[in-house]
Write a structure and sequence with these properties.
68% of the residues lie in helices and 0% in strands. It is an all-alpha fold. The termini are far apart. It folds into 2 domains: 52 residues, Orthogonal Bundle (Arc Repressor Mutant, subunit A), CATH 1.10.10; 145 residues, Tetracycline Repressor, domain 2, CATH 1.10.357.10.
Length: 215
């Protein structure tokens, strides 16, 4: 695979177009259901361009993992979500993620999590890239919880590291069941249960909110 840093501006744009097209196709049809030819046609590039930027499908999938991680992290870090440093903000975060699944008819699952189910046991390189993406996502949750802990919003025995990991696990597990059942209830239940657990560590129960935007 050609290093992005060595590409011209036009080359980077072409490569990004290929990766974006591949990401959308793989999200919709899966890795096995997406061929190099499908990606080539969707991106509007030639066969020689495909081989110039990607040695094989494995190298393309690895870049798709990075792309999907970036999409997910940008949403999680965007103005719609903000810093997750309050009980109300965490409830809003959960509501935003739940609404995304509802808006999609509970189809497709998580852009990053759906890839994990396909490649973690078959592609060690892609698995490593996925681990980095999930670690960044977990870090964002942990930073907000750490701010709450440092302010004294969480009791001294609360563990921001474990709470962040559990929140992400609840989101991923709930999303998978929601995708499978085509019903938002599993994700709603998983997130509510986990957030109720986080809220059990509140030093001031009165500070616990059920959503900060409308209430």
């Amino acid at each position: 695979m050609t290093g992005t840093a060595k590409l011209t501006r036009k080359g980077r744009a072409t490569k990004e177009r290929i990766v974006s097209a591949a990401a959308d196709l793989i999200y919709e049809h899966g890795v096995a259901g997406t061929s190099i030819e499908d990606v080539r046609a969707a991106a509007g590039v030639s066969g020689s361009q495909m081989t110039h930027y990607f040695q094989d499908k494995r190298s393309l999938v690895a870049d798709v993992v990075d792309h999907q991680a970036k999409v997910v992290i940008e949403f999680q870090a965007g103005p719609e979500v903000g810093v997750l440093d309050s009980f109300a903000a965490l409830r809003d975060w959960a509501a935003d993620n739940l609404q995304r699944q509802v808006d999609k008819g509970c189809e497709g699952g998580c852009r990053l999590g759906s890839l994990a189910g396909e490649v973690v046991e078959t592609d060690l390189y892609a698995r490593a890239r996925l681990a980095i993406g999930f670690a960044e996502w977990e870090r964002m949750l942990r930073e907000g919880l750490q701010l709450m802990y440092d302010r004294g919003d969480l009791q001294p025995h609360a563990d921001p590291d474990k709470l962040a990991m559990a929140l992400l696990a609840a989101l991923q597990g709930g999303t998978l069941l929601t995708q499978t059942k085509r019903d938002a209830a599993p994700l709603a239940a998983a997130l509510d249960a986990m957030l109720t657990y986080v809220e059990s560590f509140a030093t001031d129960p009165a500070a616990v909110g059920r959503g900060g935007r409308d209430g």
